[in-house]
Structure formats: structure tokens, C-alpha cells
Amino acid sequence: MKIAIAGDHGGFLLKNELIKHLQELKIPYIDCGTDSQESCDYPDYAEKACKLVLSGKVTYAVLICGTGIGMSITANKINGIRAALCSDEFSAHFTRAHNDANVLALGARVIGPGLAVSILDAFINSKFEGGRHERRLEKIRQIERSHNHV
Ligand code: RB5
Asked: N- or C-end of the chain: fewer Cβ atoms within 10 A?
């Protein structure tokens, strides 16, 4: 498993906390920025990390902004990305089990670092169950294809 992690200025401090946790777990990661608390635009960082997921260079991406909403909206615009904004471990488990989510979005101004670590653990330790859920993912892919023209 390898993880891309990205945050805007609102997510910068929580990103550092989660990187420490990944280091403790010896899980390889790619830090996609940002590198400070200076104001920046979350779509730039969401796209960078999601591209790594789609290219297969990483297994998952973790995206952090103030609320997690901007990051999750951006990520879900990209075909093949299934991003889940989670503020609890239950949702983090089931978005892997049922939605095969490949991106976890977190709101650094919504949850504390301890909960964020537990949510990340629940996400990476949960497996997609397949079966009836695969049929539903295929329907999502069909919707992506049918709305793919501007
Ligand atoms: C930045 O102020 C804030 O808007 C951003 O971190 C995020 O919460 C957007 O959804």
C-alpha cells in the first residue's frame, strides 16, 4: 500500500500529523503539498494526488482542507475517483467496504488529529466487499461516461 497525501493551507497541520502516523506505520507515502499555511487553492492539490491514484502509483489519496468539502467536490469531478468525506470511523470503514472509495477527504477544522488518525486507520484497514456493490459502482461508471462531454 502507498498513499498520496495532500492538503491546502487549512489542512497543512493535520497533513503533518497524518504523515507522522504513516511513518510510524511504515506506510510509504507521497506528500503532494502544500508546504505551509500560506493561502493556496485546494483544487490544485486534490488533482495532483488524484492523478497518482489513477496512474496506479499510489493505492489511495488522503485530501485535507478546512472542511474537507472543497477537496471532496474536486476529487469527485475526476472520472475514476470515488472520494468520501468522513468525520467518523464507521463511514470510513463502509466507504471502503461498499463504495470502494479510493480517496479519503478530511476536514481539519471539523475533526481533531486523534479522530483523523482513527478514521485513516479504519479506511486503510477495510476492504471492498464486491458482490452487489460492484453492480452499483458500474452504474456510477456509466453515469461518468454519459456526462463526460461538455
Ligand atoms: C480555505 O479557507 C477553505 O475554504 C478550504 O480549506 C476548504 O474548507 C474548502 O472547502
From this structure: C
Strands 103-107, 60-65: parallel, antiparallel or unpaired by DSSP? parallel
Q: Which of 65, 86, 133, 149 is catalytic?
A: 65
The domain total for the chain is 1
Q: Would you report the helix, strand and coil content of the chain in percent, each value rounded to 5?
A: 50, 15, 35
Task: Give the number of other Cβ atoms within 10 Å of residue 13's Cβ.
Answer: 13
| CB of 42 sitting under 6 A from ligand 1 | yes
CATH of the domain at 43: 3.40.1400.10
pLDDT in tens, 9-23: 999 999 999 999 999
Summarised one tens digit per residue, pLDDT across range 36-77 is 999 999 999 999 999 999 999 999 999 999 999 999 999 999
Is residue 74 in contact with ligand 1, taking CB distance under 6 Å? no
Checking if the pLDDT of 150 tops 90, the result is: no
